[in-house]
Fold:
Amino acid sequence: ETGVTQSPTHLIKTRGQQVTLRCSSQSGHNTVSWYQQALGQGPQFIFQYYREEENGRGNFPPRFSGLQFPNYSSELNVNALELDDSALYLCASSLGGGLQGETQYFGPGTRLLVL
Amino acid sequence: AQSVTQPDIHITVSEGASLELRCNYSYGATPYLFWYVQSPGQGLQLLLKYFSGDTLVQGIKGFEAEFKRSQSSFNLRKPSVHWSDAAEYFCAVGAALGGYGGSQGNLIFGKGTKLSVKP
Structure:
């Protein structure tokens, strides 16, 4: 069974640029959630996708957007990068449609540095 | 507001000693509670979870946690720590996503406790 994978592992961008991060969910999982983990902080929920639709969203601006594909893989796009966007971006998959309390399985993350 | 507090930013214990990591939550309903561990350069690995029933939950790697509703706590324990347990530990509550009219949820994490193990 393949776990959650993310690419790239590291990325450096400059302020104002756009970035796309990718996630492949664990086999059989239909829901993907994205989290941002700033240095020294716990992960913060960005949004969740189920059956290619946004299922829920945290307190992040619209320049954070996402997609989910028919194979349940997902992308996180961030436009107009700001210095504060520097963080570890974690993808998590689950198999219950994003129900409250269901277990989420995390990938290793993409570390983004914005200069 | 829903929140999770981990009062200890950094804890150091000797190898073989017992461990307790504290977690307090604020949540209006019966909480779904999780403990995750994060090693350097890695994602989060689930240690254990509590949904209902027995308030003492067993997890992987010899960890356990006890849910105490009266204290709004879900502390993580291990009787004998190994050097490989050095990592960052996160407590999380499974919260409902407001405004979506359904039963979707997300995880709300504490800020984490970094565990160092002395030889």
Summary: Chain B has a mean pLDDT of 91. The interface with chain A takes residues 4, 32, 34, 36, 41-46, 49, 51, 90, 92, 94-97, 100, 103-112 of chain B (CB under 8 Å). The two ends of chain B are 41 Å apart (CA to CA). The CA atoms of residues 65 and 76 of chain B lie 4 Å apart.
